[in-house]
């Protein structure tokens, strides 16, 4: 007996669910406001009635030509493959840039350590010899290296 009642209830629910659809009325009231309701507007108002599919069917998508004709399966597959390749290339570029920034960050940290810890900083003079760096030049190099650190060592 319970089985029959349960079967009847489930059947009733399925039948009612198959006939569901949503209606939305769009109209402008006397104050100029656009109203959206599920009930008809007062008499004398012009309306725009819309029906919505509530059964879960996906709306049709437009293809590259702008029409609402569905794409063929091969066209959809080609588009998907193209997007995947582009995404992969973008990830590769981002990964290479991250590695380059990491390398530059390590170099800047090494330079800063050298500029701050060396008692006498020397640089090549361009004529095959070396020249000592004065305090003003050292401070300029430290400032530039700090800017490099801020640029390349973001976390």
Summarize this structure as a short list of keywords or feature phrases.
3 helices, elongated, three-stranded antiparallel beta sheet, alpha+beta
Describe this structure as you would to a colleague.
The chain is of the alpha+beta class. Among the domains are: 23-53, no CATH class; 98-155. It is built from 3 helices and 5 strands, in the order αβββαββα. The protein has helices at residues 2-18, 73-117, 135-152, and strands at residues 22-28, 34-37, 47-52, 122-124, 130-132. Strands 2-1-3 form a 3-stranded antiparallel beta sheet, with no helix packed on it. A two-stranded antiparallel ribbon has the order 4-5. A hairpin with a 5-residue loop joins strand 1 and strand 2 (34-37). The radius of gyration is 35 Å and the shape is elongated. The two termini are 68 Å apart.
What order do the helices and strands come in, and which of them pair?
Layout: H1 2-18, E1 22-28, E2 34-37, E3 47-52, H2 73-117, E4 122-124, E5 130-132, H3 135-152
Antiparallel strand pairs: 1-2, 1-3, 4-5
Helix pairs in contact: 2-3
Task: Summarize the entry for a quick read.
With 155 residues, the protein is an alpha+beta fold.
């Amino acid at each position: 007996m319970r089985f029959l009642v349960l079967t009847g209830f489930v059947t009733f629910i399925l039948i009612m669910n198959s006939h569901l659809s949503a209606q939305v009325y769009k109209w402008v009231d006397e104050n100029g406001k656009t109203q959206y309701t599920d009930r008809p507007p007062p008499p004398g108002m012009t309306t725009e009635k819309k029906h919505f599919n509530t059964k879960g069917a996906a709306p049709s998508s437009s293809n590259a030509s702008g029409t609402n004709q569905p794409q063929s399966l091969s066209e959809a597959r080609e588009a998907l493959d193209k997007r995947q390749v582009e995404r992969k290339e973008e990830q590769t570029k981002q990964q290479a840039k991250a590695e380059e920034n990491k390398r530059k960050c390590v170099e800047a940290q090494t330079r800063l350590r050298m500029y701050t810890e060396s008692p006498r900083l020397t640089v090549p003079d361009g004529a095959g010899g070396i020249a000592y760096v004065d305090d003003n030049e050292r401070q300029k190099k430290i400032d530039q290296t700090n800017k490099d650190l801020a640029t390349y060592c973001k976390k």
